Amino acid sequence: MTGIRPSRQGETFSSRHVGAITGDRGRMLATLQVESLTELIGLAAPADILASVEAPGMPPATDEAGVRHELAELASRNRPGRPLIGRGYHGTITPAVIRRNVLENPSWYTAYTPYQPEISQGRLEALITFQQMVEDLTALDVANSSLLDEATAAAEAMLLARRASRATSSRFLVGQALLEQVRTVLAGRAEALGIELVTADLTDRNSWGPQVERGCFGVLADCPDGHGRVWNPAALFDAVHTGRGICVAECDILALALIVPPGELGADVAVGSTQRFGVPLGFGGPHAGYMAVRKGLERQLPGRLVGTSRDADGIPAYRLALQTREQHIRRDRATSNICTAQVLLAVMAAMYAVWHGPQGIRAIASQVHRRTVRLAEGLRAAGFGIGEEPFFDTVRIPVPGGAEELWQTARRAGFTLDLIDGDTIGISLDETVTDEEIDQIIGLCGDGPTGVCAPRGADAGWEWPTALIRTSDYLTHPVFTSFGSETAMMRYLKRLADRDFGLDRGMIPLGSCTMKLNAAIEMEPISWPAFADLHPYAPAVDAEGSLAMIADLETWLAQLTGYDTVSLQPNAGSQGEYAGLLAIRGYHRSRGDDGRRVCLVPSSAHGTNAASAALAGMRVVVVASDDGGNIDPADLAAKIATHADELAAIMITYPSTHGVYEAHVRKICRMVHDAGGQVYIDGANLNALLGVARPGEIGGDVSHLNLHKTFAIPHGGGGPGVGPLAAKAHLAPFMPGSPVGTTVEHPLADGGTVRHTGHPVAAATYGSAGVLPISWAYLRLMGLDGLREATGQAVLSANYVARRLQSTIPVLYTGANGLVAHECILDIRPLTHDTGITVDDVAKRLIDYGFHAPTMSFPVAGTLMVEPTESEDVAELDRFCDAMLAIVDEARKVAAGDWPAEDNPLVNAPHPAPRLLDDEWSHPYSRKLAAYPGTAASAARDAEAGLHVNPVTRIQAKYWPPVGRIDNAFGDRHLMCSCPPPEAFEEH
Fold it and tell me: Ranges for the Glycine dehydrogenase C-terminal domain (predicted)?
């Protein structure tokens, strides 16, 4: 293994990314009695996994000016132009107040998933506003807080329909005009689970009638459909309901401002994308999909659901509801494998609705439709045979034999239309298109007159049957009409941000989540129009810069991980898992081994592992862990022997979910390979390997990687995530292919190219391509040496915390030489046994000390899993350790009787300001201890380090939780997943 060299302040970007440098690092190393990061890694990790990692495709690290220049050059090679392609993606205007105060604001993009709701109230309020927006526009009762994209939402709706339907059929009916990317993602899900997709013209009863009579468990009806037609699915829904099926409507979120919503037409479920509510195209993502359901189906909803409960003082508060549905609890029986949402994008879409309000949204939708009508009438006047079918924003132009020529003519004028086939052109309008551009397009299409059709009046809907014109109100909650000025909106967004805790406030030491620095220089390019305004189905020539960047990323990631090829399509870690298991299944089937469907999953694995295996059509068999937290080799051998002929794969996490480098990982891989299975290595913990070992060389056949963990894409409050798939060459043909049938060549690590032709798992070929500049910049800035240093520092930070705490709080699992990898599990159970103070009490008390709690009760109940990452400096690590030790002292005072078990600063934590300002204070501890428990310890630590911090400054830095401890059980018993009326808060 190449040595990990120390960094010097100002030498490279890595010296600013890595928190502990020079003397601080020396003190940490001395605590562990080692001389260097290289020695530490050598002691913690098995020698047979360490390698001299080479990545010949990676150039040496550059500085911030250099990476900005290179990204600008790549951006200059993109030509977004005026894409009027549509197909589920539309130009939109991101209000500047939202771009600056949400998308570009670290208070929003550096926060974690709101599993600690007391310090996530701003995000949760924004998400419940998103749910309210979706519920209003769809006229359905409950919406979740976003899905990964439109195609994924449709696939999840199909699975929901199968669970909820009382029909015995395995057939699912879809429209023949369904968007291609939605159809191909559906097909992959259906094939894995034995669902038969049946296609019909859903606008023609003679086509769908016989199919419904044969039986189906549900239908997916898109309106407007993929041809742009607006039609009435009510009769279809009635017929499917008669057969006890579930009806899913796929809807354009903007069109619902004008068209009768699906809930009023009889739909049980509605799905779609909220991209055109202010979220840039981004070459395909990230975008927030949506799903809403009628009452009675809320427990079947996949993904996250924000609900309202109350805190310990009776004040209404938000939290994630009904988590018993989710994969981290139900595992292979979960409603979905999705462990993330598109929170940052959902917040943007919700705030777009807040900014524009109901009148503004209707005005935008009306303008888009009026201009589309004007375009259609102008084209008719120019001699084109535009049909009379109702439409919203899309028209199809019949050009027998001349579509290619017309498309090229438009291209020369700067417009990219949708070349459907040799005889047909499609044009989709959006809020960015002007009347002048419509005149220009009409002029390009023929010699007929231009500008002959004056804009219609304000009442859009004239092209539709009266039964399809929306008359019901929407966005009636005061939140959508209270912030009309930019001053008010700016302050509202600031107020929400202040109610949250992100990395901009302090360390978020979440095990398995890698909350590291998301550097500003990495974040800047995602707002550049050349990246943000690129349509995912634009011609390759328009995306040369992005495609070059993507090819770099695929090559670098493959070389760093020891695999041959990479797909960037999966837009979450769970989707990367699913795609990897589909690739394994495809490989076995190609060899005539369709019977290999058993997936071995260690008992300590992430819940998504088991859920993903089930969705890929595999049967989960659990492998036990031994007393050291490792995979039990005897149990593994027994399970392999029992299922040898059925064995498809094993899913392992390395380093293990218990935070150690398992010594026998190569042996485990050999055992599975000898039995004919494949090895899936979960890449969640790659931050302990990057630059020093490669999972593809350890024995992995396939891994997903988390760009939102190891590669610096921010978590965004719970999303976006990016979960690329890396695989050996024999699995390459089975990796996710293009969702629209485009032939794509992917680079191989050693040169050459390969095609991925497996089932797509997302709507865009490159998934959440809009945030890929972040990881590209991170790798260019760090270089291989910087990545190696980051890994070493991450391992050092975790071991430093473990060493400082282990004499007081046991570290549950350690590996070689008593060391951990990049995270450690602190065992709170002895403290609970001795004092009655639970892991929940510790987590909530940490909020008073100014910390987000570590990961609670995973993978072992009653523990805290801590991952400090490489980005935190030693002062912050010490502050955390001081807080944990002080909390133990507080717990011991409870055991000693100094404070009652039912009334002490731990069980009452966290302490919001209103409680502290109450006229009465009857607790047996002081208000100061409640609010500022770490002041004395921090002052002592600062003095030891030679720092002179004004006590007033320290008090001003205090994070105030907006609510007290939230009663989750009450919230689940009194489920409310819409915006509460303002009076609910005024009462308190």
Answer: 790-911
The terminus-to-terminus CA distance of the chain in angstroms comes to 61
| Cβ-based neighbour number of residue 398 at 10 Å | 13
Residue 560: per-residue pLDDT: 97
Place of tokens 């900014």: 355
State the pLDDT at residue 956: 52
602-614 pLDDT, tens digit each: 988 887 899 899 9
What per-residue confidence (pLDDT) applies to 456? 42
Burial of 797 per CB tally in 10 Å (0-12, 13-18, 19+):
buried
Q: Tell me the average pLDDT across 82-102.
A: 98
Q: Are strands 598-602 and 745-747 parallel, antiparallel or unpaired?
A: unpaired
Is residue 668 within 8 A of residue 649, CB to CB? The reply is: no
- Looking at residue 857, the DSSP 8-state letter turns out to be S
Q: Is the pLDDT of residue 976 over 90?
A: no
Judge if 14-61+565-783 and 116-354 fold alike in CATH terms.
Answer: yes
d(CA 807, CA 868): 19
402: left (phi over 0), alpha (psi -120 to 50) or beta: alpha
Contact between residue 635 and residue 622 where contact means Cβ atoms under 8 Å apart? no
What size, in residues, is the chain? 988
pLDDT classification of 12: cutoffs 50, 70, 90 = confident
Task: Select the CATH number that applies to the domain covering 116-354 from these four: 3.40.640.10, 3.40.50.1820, 3.40.50.740, 3.40.1010.10.
Answer: 3.40.640.10
CA distance 81 to 527: 16
- Whether 936 shows a pLDDT value over 90: the answer reads no
Q: How far apart are CA 251 and CA 281, in angstroms?
A: 18
In eight-state DSSP terms, residue 981 is P
Instruction: Give residues with Cβ within 8 angstroms of 298, minimum separation 6.
Output: 141, 142, 305, 322, 975, 977
- CA 253 to chain CA centroid, nearest Å: 20
User: Does the 14-61+565-783 domain belong in CATH 3.40.640.10?
Assistant: yes
Measured between alpha carbons, how far is residue 712 from residues 276, 705, 722 in Å? Answer: 26, 12, 11
3-state secondary structure of 424: strand
Higher pLDDT, 531 or 23: 531
CA distances from 46 to 563, 650, 798 (A): 20, 21, 18
The percent of residues in the chain predicted with pLDDT above 70, rounded, is: 94
Q: Which two tokens stand for residue 25?
A: 């690092």
CA dist 204 to 208, 713, 812, Å? 7, 46, 63
Tokens of 140: 């359905």
Give me the residue spans of the domains in the chain.
14-61+565-783, 116-354
CA–CA separation, 951 and 960 (whole Å): 17
Residues contacting 619, CB < 8 A, separation 6+: 597, 598, 599, 613, 646
Q: Is the dihedral of CA 643, 647, 651, 655 positive or negative?
A: positive
Return the pLDDT at 11.
67
The DSSP letter of residue 111 is B
Residue 965 and residue 844 in contact, taking contact as beta carbons nearer than 8 Å: yes
Mean pLDDT of 56-64: 94
Sign, CA dihedral 275-277-282-286, equals negative
Measured between alpha carbons, how far is 122 from 498 in angstroms, rounded to an integer? 7
- Residue 353 has φ and ψ, to the nearest 5°, of -70, -40
What gap in Å lies between CA 819 and CA 42, rounded to an integer?
A: 11
Q: What is the pTM of this model?
A: 0.95
